[in-house]
Design goal:
Number of helices of chain B: 18
Shape of chain B: rod-shaped
Number of strands of chain A: 5
CATH architecture of chain A: 3-Layer(aba) Sandwich
Radius of gyration of chain A: 13 Å
CATH superfamily of chain A: Response regulator
Number of strands of chain B: 22
Strand order of the largest sheet of chain A: 2-1-3-4-5
Radius of gyration of chain B: 74 Å
CATH topology of chain A: Rossmann fold
Strand content of chain A: 15-25%
Helix content of chain A: 40-55%
Largest interface: A-B, 26 and 26 residues
Number of helices of chain A: 5
Order of helices and strands of chain A: EHEHEHEHEH
Largest sheet of chain A: 5 strands, parallel
CATH class of chain A: Alpha Beta
Oligomer: heterodimer
Structural class of chain A: alpha/beta
Helix content of chain B: 40-55%
Largest sheet of chain B: 5 strands, antiparallel
Chain lengths: 127, 786
């Protein structure tokens, strides 16, 4: 990673504070900047405002679910290329399918490994 | 001939008149003649007596008078002087003038005033006065003449004339008879012929050439005879036909004839054979004697009055009559009653023609009964099919609901388990990978997260197990008399430190008394702990109050009254806390504000424009569980399918309120009916000054895995099962738990439990009485879910 390059920003959106902390750790470990949101509505607003390079969304959140946030973001022209990773404790195939249907780039089931999460973030941001 | 006849008749009638007239003429003549003769005699005596008077030769005078007195009819001759002194007087006795002179009679008689011939006539005599004159007036001659002889003579003459007349009449009559003999014979022949016409029609008379009239008469009679003969043939034919038809009718039908009084005048063999009554028994009886009048008389049999009213007004009556037989049994007859109308338009006779249709009728009845039972069977089957389908659908829906609940539960449990697991795994891995890079404080922090999330996982597993045990009925309920006041004080002590740490005030509000309930102390403590923990979690400032008080529980029933007035007295008779409203929106508002307070909703939608589906759907948006009883306009045979998804819900008809309302309440709820006992309860409440709960979340807080949707609640890390467990505990004791809340101001969670009052009774029978009282209480304490 080139030190002079501006670090990509990852928006972390999860209502569970401890999980948010573990994701933040993984993003930080990958060397990216991060933004934190504790519910869907705030997450969507912050994404629109800050235009992050990547958004990590929990599914079950107050305000808006991760699926709803993802779908709305994909509806915005400037958000078409943003990388979206959906994290969920609902780990069935249908949940995964729904994540891709609403426009997510990748999907990770809880409990996840911060190690694997870091790799996925790097992959998605093509680093 | 007619002229001769008229002449003879006239002659015959004129004879008496002629005879009478002739007799009168004769009588008049005789009278005149007598008058004249007497006058002549008197004048003759007057002349011849002059000399005798002058000479006073009275003897000669007497002789003269005697001679004159011999004239028939003379009864007395007197000669008097002018002054009336009698000179001679001859009286005729028995027709003989034998007697003598009366010259010596000195008495004078009254003489006429003038000296003229004078004649006076009386009934039976005639007197003639003739003056005797010879130069001077010498006296009078008076002759009295008896009319008897004159009358006798007249009578004789009349008699002679009558004899003549009679003879003449006899001759005339004889002539007439002789003259009329032939025509009369002919008329007699014609009369005899006419008399025989009814027997010997067609016979002809020989027409005489005697007289035109008689000839015409004979011709007319001959024509009449011929015409009658023709008519006779026709009548004969018609009668024969009628006879044949009557025979045919009698052979085919049951015939009777009634007079205008409704009396049977004729009954044919068929009728007697059918009924068992003889002709003699039927004729002379009233026509409706055979009508079935017993109690089993089918309602469709016509009434005698209806039939009589129709036929007596001249109309034909068609229909079916129901007869009873002499030997018992009955018969149905297809009947036509025809009134025979006279010239004045009134019936004079009724002919009743009937056909026995008993077999047909019985077959119809059997068919009808079979149809009826078939229809009943079909209806029952239909109703059963509908009911069964509804039950199956309901069961299916419940099954699907349970299945989806189960799936959802598994999914939610999985999600809830994965959440703390994620934290545990993440931080364990972080510590494993980067322990050298992480400073000690952060390591401790991560370890504390792992610890915290492990506890959370443990609690969650315990809660899930608790719920599963309760669902499976495997929970051990160690019920014993527990003083809730004591428990409250213990809890205050336990929680005081935590509250103090958060800077919150925890207070206890209760009277100084015992609140003894027969409950599992651990469970009630778990329940109350849960409420106090929640209050602690969701309150940032202010304080929390734990309160206990006795209350007298009455189930709250919310009523939308409309037309079904009958239901209010029934409901008022119950021990309900009855709240009635007039409009659906008022009811919905109440539900929105206090979703957990009502045990039952009764919605009268009879004669209302609001549909059942809309009303229940609106209610379910406010409260998903409350039983809803709907009063509809129509009676309810099958519950509407649309209610299936809104259960518990039932419909009854407005006219069924009296009979079905209590049963419906009983079916849907455990509300105590006809109870005058007010159950003593304890109400335990935890009131906080926390974040509160949005109104639309109020009814969901007791649902499993429900957490009020906000990041703040997530921060508190609950399992979402605590309140669900609380509800299950309360409902196990037939209590009630609810929440009242205002967002940002605070919440009040409260539950009520039945108090055990048996400790107030005497000690020796404490257990028995306690148990029986507890049973009684339990039967009256209500759960909002059956």
């Amino acid at each position: 990673m080139n030190e002079d390059e501006k670090k990509p920003t990852v928006l972390i959106c999860d209502d569970e504070p401890h999980i948010r902390e573990s994701i933040r750790y993984a993003v930080n470990k990958a060397g990216f900047d991060y933004l934190l949101a504790s519910d869907g509505t705030t997450g969507y607003a912050m994404a629109c405002e800050n235009q992050p390079d990547m958004v990590i969304l929990d599914v079950g959140m107050p305000g808006m679910t991760g699926y709803e946030v993802c779908e709305k973001l994909r509806g915005l022209p400037e958000m078409r290329d943003v990388k979206i990773l959906i994290l969920t404790a609902f780990g069935q195939e249908k949940d995964k399918q729904q994540a891709f249907n609403v426009g997510a780039n990748d999907f990770l089931t809880k409990p996840f490994s911060p190690r694997i999460l870091k790799e996925k973030i790097l992959d998605l941001l093509d680093k | 001939m007619q002229v001769a006849l008229v002449f003879l008749v006239l002659m015959l009638f004129s004879v008496p008149f002629y005879v009478i007239h002739e007799a009168q003429q004769e009588l008049e003549y005789i009278f005149k003649t007598s008058e004249h003769e007497i006058t002549v005699i008197s004048q003759n005596i007057a002349v011849n007596s002059i000399d005798h008077i002058v000479t006073r030769d009275y003897t000669s005078l007497d002789k003269l008078l005697i001679r004159s007195a011999r004239f028939p009819g003379v009864i007395d001759i007197q000669v008097t002087k002018p002054d009336g002194a009698i000179i001679s007087d001859i009286v005729v006795k028995d027709g003989k003038n034998t007697d003598a002179t009366t010259r010596y009679n000195i008495a004078n008689i009254h003489v006429p005033s003038t000296i003229d011939l004078k004649l006076t006539s009386q009934q039976d005599r005639m007197d003639v006065w003739a003056p005797i004159e010879s130069g001077s007036h010498l006296g009078w001659v008076k002759i009295a003449y008896s009319m008897e002889s004159v009358n006798k003579h007249g009578e004789d003459r009349i008699w002679d004339h009558l004899q003549d007349g009679a003879f003449l009449t006899l001759i005339l009559v004889a002539s007439l008879l002789l003259f009329m003999k032939k025509p009369l014979n002919m008329i007699s022949t014609a009369v005899q012929f006419a008399g025989r016409l009814d027997e010997k029609t067609g016979e002809q008379l020989t027409v005489p050439r005697q007289s035109t009239e008689i000839e015409q008469l004979f011709n007319v009679l001959n024509k009449v005879s011929l015409s009658l003969s023709d008519q006779d043939i026709v009548i004969h034919k018609v009668l024969k036909e009628l006879e044949t038809q009557k025979h045919a009718l009698d052979e085919h039908s049951i015939v009777s004839i009634w007079d205008t009084d409704g009396v049977i005048t004729y009954a044919n063999n068929k009728l007697t054979q059918l009924t068992g009554y003889s002709q003699h028994e039927l004729c002379g009886k009233k026509c409706f004697m055979l009508n079935h009048h017993c109690n089993e008389n089918p309602s469709n049999a016509p009434s005698s009055d209806d039939i009589w009213s129709t036929i007596s007004s001249g109309d034909i009556w068609h229909g079916e009559m129901h007869f009873k037989m002499k030997q018992g049994g009955d018969a149905w007859l297809n009947t036509t009653i025809i009134p025979f109308i006279d010239e004045s338009g009134h019936p004079y006779e009724y002919v009743n023609i009937q056909t026995d249709i008993t077999e047909q009728k019985n077959a119809e009845k059997q068919l009808e009964e079979k149809n009826k039972s078939l229809k009943e069977l079909t209806d029952n089957l239909e109703v059963k099919v509908i009911q069964r389908t509804a039950e199956l659908e309901s069961a299916n829906q419940q099954l699907q609901h349970l299945n989806s609940m189960k799936s959802e539960f598994v999914s939610v449990v999985s999600h809830e388990l994965r959440t703390p697991l994620t934290s545990i795994k993440s931080f364990a891995e972080i510590l494993e990978d980067d322990i050298e890079e992480i400073d000690l404080d952060t390591q401790r922090h991560y370890l504390s997260i792992i610890n915290e999330e492990t506890d959370r996982l443990g609690r969650l597993i315990n809660d899930v197990l608790d719920l599963q045990k309760m669902d499976a009925g495997k929970t051990n309920w160690n019920d014993e008399k527990t003083d809730l006041a004591q428990m409250a004080m213990t809890l205050i002590e336990l929680f005081s430190k935590s509250y103090e740490d958060k800077g919150l005030n925890l207070s206890l509000d209760m009277p100084e008394e015992q609140f003894i309930a027969n409950v599992d102390a651990d469970k009630i403590q778990q329940l109350t702990t849960n409420l106090l923990s929640n209050a602690l979690k969701f309150t940032a400032q202010g304080g929390v109050t734990l309160a206990l008080k006795t209350s007298h529980y009455r189930p709250q029933v919310l009523v939308l009254k409309n037309n079904a007035d009958a239901m209010l007295p029934i409901l008022k008779a119950q021990n309900f806390n009855l709240i009635s409203v007039d409009k659906l929106h008022e009811l919905l508002n109440l539900l929105e504000n206090t979703p957990y307070l009502s045990e039952l909703l009764i919605i009268d939608l009879s004669h209302s424009h609001i549909s059942i589906e809309d009303a229940v759907e609106d209610i379910r948006k406010k409260n998903t569980n409350v039983p809803v009883l709907i009063i509809t306009s129509e009676d309810v045979v099958v519950q509407p399918e649309s209610l299936l998804k809104h259960q518990p819900a039932l419909c009854i008809g407005v006219s069924e309120v009296d009979s079905k309302l209590p049963a419906a309440i009983n079916e849907m709820t455990t509300l105590p009916l006809n109870s005058s006992i007010i159950i003593p309860t304890v109400e335990v409440s935890v009131t906080d000054t926390g974040i509160g709960i949005p109104r639309d979340e109020l009814q969901k807080v007791f649902a499993r895995f429900h957490q009020v949707d906000s990041s703040e609640t997530r921060e508190t890390g609950g399992s979402g099962l605590g309140l669900a467990i609380c509800r299950d505990i309360v409902e196990h004791y037939h209590g009630k738990i609810w929440v009242e809340s205002t967002p940002q101001k605070g919440s009040r969670f409260a539950y009520i439990l039945p108090l055990d009052t048996s400790h107030e009774t005497e000690g020796s029978n404490l257990i028995t009485e306690s148990a029986s009282f507890a049973e009684q209480q339990n039967s009256h304490i209500v759960s909002s879910h059956k």
